[in-house]
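Can't paste images in this forum, so I'm doing it all in text. The chain is below; anyone willing to post the predicted structure tokens underneath?
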Amino acid sequence: MERKIDVIETFEGKKVVVIHDIIFKKKQYVEWKDVKEYLKRYVGDVYTILSSQDNIYIGPDFPNEFSGSAYTYSLKGANVKAKANAVQGIPEMVEIAVGGNYKENDEEKHRRNAKYGWYRYDSYFAIPVHDNDGEVDHYNVFHASLLIRHDEDGKKYLYDIIDIKKETSYPLEP
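Text version of the structure:
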């Protein structure tokens, strides 16, 4: 499946990954097993955060965590559809990420796979909103936090995308 993605810069200087197709259409109930299957195509890939030059690896645990985390199951409304469709723009979301706030690992269950702690980067993506005729009316912009684990092998791995929140300041016009 071909991805239809653009990266734009807003008037405020914020980079946004624009996702032009909705492949997971349901708003309330998403088939997360289908999302998990889609994510497997990224396993083994490496993307670079342009602002920090950090290489971010996609490990085999990412599809399970993204589609089956407690955060994913807590989502409601448009955020369910937004997280599911954000999968199409993961390479670009990593590349435009900014921030990199560090937190030490304090959970025993992650003592090896996040031995050197956690990083949170901010990223933005947009998905289309269609009118009654099926035409794109506008794009809703969402903020997301990329949760990166710093493994005992010294590499940084994308672990999950969390804190998805619709930006209310502006929609993007088609």
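The CA atoms of residues 4 and 15 lie 17 Å apart. The chain has one domain: 5-166.
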